[in-house]
Every structure is written in C-alpha cells, then in structure tokens.
Amino acid sequence: MEFSSIRSALFVPGTRPDRVDKALATQADAVIIDLEDAVPPEKKVEAREVARAKLEQHARREIMVRANSLDSGQFELDLTALRGLPLSCLFVPKVERGPQVESIDQALRGLEEAAGLTPYSIGAMYLIESALGVENAFAIAGHPVHGQRPAMLAFGAADYANDLGMELSPQGDELYYPRHRVSNASHAAGLPGPLDSPFMRDLDDLAALEADARRAKAVGFGGKLCIHPNQVPVCNRVFSPSERHIARAQKIVAAFEETLTQGQGVLKVDGEFVDEPVVESCRRLLRRARLDSSAG
After folding, report:
1. pTM value?
2. What superkingdom does the record give (predicted)?
C-alpha cells in the first residue's frame, strides 16, 4: 500500500461484510475494516471473523484493519485473528508515545512471519487523537523503524477535543494547532502527508466537508478519513494535485526520461536544476493523480 497516494480512506464497521464489498466498489483509495469504535464489545469476535474473511477474499487489496488500542485488552485478540492473512496495513488508534511504535512493529513482524510475507511489508497507520499524542507526534513519526516499514499518521479530532474538554465550532478553528503539529511531524520525519479526521457534523453537507478538507490540505495533509461513501469523491477531488502541478510534474518526468536516453548528466527544466529526488517527488504526485505510467 503506497501511503503517499491515499486521498480518501473509508471506514466500514467490521460487523457489516456487505458494506466492505460496497466500499471496495467506490473510488476510495483505501478501505478500513473497523474493529474498534464501530463495534460494541459483544460484537468483537464477529467483526474479527468478517475481517478475516474479507482479507482472504481480497488479498493485498487496499484494505486496512483498525485494531483496538494497545491498552484495550483487545489488541492481542485482534492480532491473533489476523495471523496468517495477507494484511497490507494495520491501523492503530490512540497512539501516544514513540515506544509504542516498537511494540506495534514487533506485532507486525509476527504477522508477517505467520503469513509468509516479506519483512516490513505491512504498513503501519498511527491515529493521533489525544493531547499527549499530538505533543509526541514527531517521536512517533520519526521512529527509526520507519526507515524500513511504511508508515503514516492520521489525526482524530473528536477524541482529541474530548481529551481537552473542548467544543468544536463548525469552522474547526480549534484544530489549527493539532493539525499543524501532526502534519509538521509527518513531513519532518519524511512520512507522507497525514490523513485528516473524518467530517462528522452533517453527512449531507458536502460543501462543509469540502471546506474542512481544504483547511486540512492547506496545512499539509495528504488525504482524509471518510465515514460515508458520499464523502469519497469530495476528498479525492480536494486532495488530488492541481492541473498546474500535474503539468509541471509531467514535464519534469518526461525531460528526465529523455536525459537518461541521451546519457546526459545534468537536467534543467525552465531554468531550474532537477535531481532524482525532485523527479521522484513528481512521480509521487503523478501516482496520486493516477497518471504515472511507471506506477505498475
């Protein structure tokens, strides 16, 4: 799963296998089977069985599983249910400290070994949703294991606001600081732009959703968590690159490929020197726009 290409990630309750199939038929870049908030305690076993069945049915598709938190008493049971399956990403809620990353990494290594997967092939998504998590965002994002394991942060506004005893306004101005902190930590650590909290006020108000998504994009978020299929097209549109950025990226990639063909060592585009990191950044942008022919 390439995190840098995720513009929308759609939650589906683990107790609703029919909705998993419907979610996979949408344009969501990722689907998250939820074993945590959307599942009451008496339904946890059922949700795990659904997750197992869907992972077996849709092997290595863009499916994540949101486990219960590390200290919930349910996390280990979730891991047991996921053993031997072709999981592409584990979504872990309520991550607050850097050392928790090591615990999650050990758990993922166990899952990889049990499933015969390549080491570090399962991605890790960390949900930052508390005051402590926001303050420790860089310790989480910058953990050394992320030099090998794909990782990404996500922000959960509802639990964050509850942690602070804070009432959110329609404009969400109160989220200015935590959004900046989570985004800055992600980029400083070399991770993709994080996923923003889902918009939950009025599922029919797509204009308000778009405004909320644009506020997140403005501070470096790469996509948004979704709780309804109708939110997916809006998020995909907001977090897709602009035509101007696409055109420039295409120009740079084309010039780079021509340079390789001609054996030239220095590349300038519109008077600016271009090196391989810039080209790779352009390729990521084009993959996000679904326009990179080399993306496979």
Report:
1. 0.88
2. Bacteria
pLDDT in tens, 173-216: 999 999 999 999 999 999 999 999 999 999 999 999 999 999 99
pLDDT at 1: 74
Q: Are 257 and 235 in contact (CB under 8 A)?
A: no
Retrieve residue 239's tokens.
């977090």
Q: Is 113 annotated as a binding residue?
A: no
Residues 239, 215: Cα–Cα separation, whole Å: 11
C-beta of residue 128 within 8 angstroms of C-beta of residue 101: no
User: Quick count: other Cβ atoms within 10 Å of Cβ 59?
Assistant: 12
Q: Does the annotation place 135 within a ligand binding site?
A: no
CA atoms within 13 A on the CB side of 183: 20
Which pLDDT score is estimated for 296? 39
How many whole angstroms from its chain centre is CA 45? 25
The average pLDDT across 52-72 equals 92
| 8 Å CB contact between 40 and 53 | no
Beta strands in 119-278 (DSSP E): 123-128, 151-155, 195-196, 223-226, 268-269, 272-273
Structure tokens at 162: 């509850």
Q: Is 66 annotated as a binding residue?
A: yes
Residue 184 in contact with residue 153, Cβ under 8 Å? no
